[in-house]
Amino acid sequence: QVRLVDSGGGSVQAGGSLRLSCAASGNTFRSYCMGWFRQAPGKEREGVAAIVSGGSTSYADSVKARFTISKDNAKNTLYLLMNSLKPEDTAMYYCAADLSAVGCGGKVLRRGSWRLFDYWGQGTQVTVSS
To answer: Would you put residue 109 in left (φ > 0), alpha (ψ -120 to 50) or beta?
Structure first.
């Protein structure tokens, strides 16, 4: 069983930054496929960024060069540093975990693949004003 707790959301103006955190339980955190997803009102949940045990990362085109996903295996914590935020980044953000790291980038970023993830944080709201 994996428990995920998201935090770090808030309200910022366009161009600002936020860092989201996701505290995870479980002894094999380092081997998980971990991802950040977001869902805006009336829109489908979408993958934002993925990271696997070796540190390999993948990003949605909409956030490349602005967002950075990272993790601290010693603290069992996943992060998402978001810079140059835009109003269109406004959404509820969720971290998610899959116990298999195979094809992690595709599992996070492929449309609709969020349904493959069994473990989710409760979500943290990010609001960006213009």
So the answer is: alpha
| Rounded distance between C-alpha atoms, residue 128 and residue 12, angstroms | 5
> Who contacts 27 (Cβ-Cβ below 8 Å, separation ≥6)?
none
Sign of CA dihedral 69, 75, 45, 54: positive
| Six token digits for residue 126 | 């990010």
Tell me what percent of the residues of the chain surpass a pLDDT of 90. 77
CA distance 77 to 5: 9
- Using alpha carbons only, what angle is made at residue 82 by residues 79 and 88, rounded to the nearest 5 degrees? 130
Phi-psi region of 76 (alpha: psi -120 to 50; beta: other; left: phi over 0): left
The model's pLDDT over 22-47, given as tens digits with 9 standing for 90+, comes to: 999 876 777 789 999 999 999 999 99
Q: Which residue type is seen at 80? A: L
Structure confidence at residue 30 (pLDDT): 75
And the tokens for 117?
Answer: 């993830």
